[in-house]
Amino acid sequence: MSETPPAAATPIDYRVEIENGALRLRLEIATKSIPVPISGEQAVLLGRALLAASVRLAVAPDGEGTVEPCDLPVAAWRTGLVRDHRLVVLMLDLPGGGSARFQLHPAMATGCGQALHDSGIVFDADLP
Questions:
Q1: CB 3.0-4.6 Å disulfide test: which of 3, 58, 76, 110 passes with 96?
Q2: Across the strands, what pairs with 21?
Q3: Rounded distance between C-alpha atoms, residue 53 and residue 8, angstroms
Q4: CA 7 to the chain's CA centroid
């Protein structure tokens, strides 16, 4: 006896638009285009919630409930340089395939690296 294939998901696409200094999340669902005005703060919270949802799905696919923005675990990190602009790049990979890239001025990169180093040493000293 063959199983019935799952119903095809409704095609959904999205993008964020800026027009006249205002943000808008545009949802494309099937044949409908729905513009949703959002504030910068809402964009931050939505971005964090979407990254958290991706991580949660990867680490606990059977979980249920509302996904809240949270501190995100890092699966891998890399650094690089943007030589033309004299910037350091920090790339963080998240479980679930998400990633974030940050550009830092050299002094900030040095300070960040030192602060991470110092924090790591505190916890390394606590390990048995």
A1: 58
A2: none
A3: 22
A4: 29
